[in-house]
Amino acid sequence: MRILSKNRTTDYIFDWDNMLAFEGNTAPYMQYAYTRVLSVFRKAEIDEEQLAAAPVIIREDREAQLAARLLQFEETLTVVAREGTPHVMCAYLYDLAGLFLWLYEHCPILSAEKRRSA
């Protein structure tokens, strides 16, 4: 991830410690975020097919930021494909992961759902 996060026209010095760090735009950080997303889906027993038709309720500013950023996926993918700039996708995914992880840590996603159904 760290290598792809750099523009292809800039030099990069390979460093294992830098590449395997858990902070910043690295593969371990992105894998951690992905694992947290899967954890939410698993614990909530969400049916992915029904998810697309589910209503979206936004209560927090950060939720709105995450939703807006998710809506930029197609545009980002188009830019990456057209211009051959994988670092743009890395930056997008890093921003997305940061927004999600903030919500994961500060907004009780699953407990809020349990309170609503009780």
Automatic annotation (TrEMBL):
InterPro entries: Arg-tRNA-ligase, DALR_anticod-bd, Rossmann-like_a/b/a_fold, tRNAsynth_Ia_anticodon-bd
Domain (DALR anticodon binding): residue spans on this chain: 30-118
Record GO biological process: arginyl-tRNA aminoacylation
Documented EC number(s): 6.1.1.19
GO molecular function: arginine-tRNA ligase activity; ATP binding
Catalytic activity: tRNA(Arg) + L-arginine + ATP = L-arginyl-tRNA(Arg) + AMP + diphosphate
Keywords: Aminoacyl-tRNA synthetase, ATP-binding, Ligase, Nucleotide-binding
Source superkingdom: Bacteria
Entry similarity comment: Belongs to the class-I aminoacyl-tRNA synthetase family.
Protein name: arginine--tRNA ligase
